[in-house]
Amino acid sequence: xxxxxxxxxxxxxxxxxxxxxxxxxxxxxxxxxxxxxxxxxxxxxxxxxxxxxxxxxxxxxxxxxxxxxxxxxxxxxxxxxxxxxxxxxxxxxxxxxxxxxxxxxxxxxxxxxxxxxxxxxxxxx
Length: 125
What we know:
With about 120 residues, the protein is mostly beta strands. It contains no helices and eleven strands. The strands form two sheets. Strands 2, 4, 5, 6, 9, 10 and 11 form a seven-stranded mixed β-sheet that branches. Strands 1-3-8-7 form a four-stranded antiparallel β-sheet, with no helix packed on it. Strand 5 and strand 6 form a beta hairpin.
């Protein structure tokens, strides 16, 4: 059974940091590109970052560029999202997703085949 599980979310003050993890079971991530998405109440799911299977190529949404860093450790079958200088507008449920191919439309949810259940990130003072 293919499964992705996010962890590392929680409550943090503005300006703080969190590190999210996306762990795979039932398949190995080394042949998959991974995307991170988030969805706030009443808003559409937003693609915020992606990484190629090798880790050599990455993408970031303008809203998180310079603050968030995506990385992967294929030996641990895990992808990470380091989030620094968090703002209240970063509050959302964060999801990771996997697809076989690397290419265009990285921020479109429909191109990903496997999804986790999400982890809540709340940025508040």
